[in-house]
Amino acid sequence: MQLADGCVIATDSEEVAGAAREHGADVVLTSAEHASGTDRVAEVAARREYLDFDAIVNVQGDEPFVPASALRGAVHHVISGNFPLGTAAARASDAILVEPSVVKVVAADDGRAMYFSRAAIPFLRDAAEAHLRSTRVWQHIGVYAYARDALATWVSLPPHPLELIERLEQLRPLAAGLAMGVALVNEPAQIGVDTAEDLERANAHWTEFEERS
Questions:
Q1: In the chain, at which end, N or C, are there fewer CB atoms within 10 A of the end residue's CB?
Q2: pLDDT above 70: percentage of residues in the chain
Q3: Is the torsion defined by CA of 20, 76, 163, 191 positive or negative?
Q4: Per-residue pLDDT tens for 76-101?
Q5: CB 153 within 8 A of CB 42
Q6: How many CB atoms lie within 10 A of CB 179?
Q7: Which helix (H) or strand (E) segment is 37 a member of?
Q8: CA distance linking residue 6 with residue 17, whole number of Å
């Protein structure tokens, strides 16, 4: 994608690490005690060999098909200085609003994330405003970019009640007042792997990709 100066797989699994190394990837085995992917990324970012990187990108393992535009958008928010944290979202249909495994986000006009939820946001109170809501249904894409200082601040914070209630780590920095920019991408959100059915679809999608390659 010509986006990053380096790429490393962070995992606490020897099995994952072995498979990645077989394919030539750089791997760091991390603590198994991390509560979130961001905590794991922070451990790696603090290693001496990575201290020269000012912006860090986290692509989560359950989001294997993140589009390049989502990565670029999230990173741009950080390296441009617009926000200390960046992520991405895609416009989606109302169908995702009833799916708790699909994370939704609402953002301010400048792109700043206002809230993430597994619930239906924005909530439609009056049917007459359905045309307005249809342009504001955004599906979160599991990628994060961090300025180094913001990453350190994030992981220094205790888990927030909202984070624990929704099981969404990104609510921790938002609750503490850290601004996170949301890059809205044109491509539809790809398959995330949150359920057994998602895994079946992801495997089929990967098989199709290999056959086309």
A1: C
A2: 96
A3: negative
A4: 999 999 999 999 999 999 999 999 98
A5: no
A6: 18
A7: helix 37-45
A8: 17
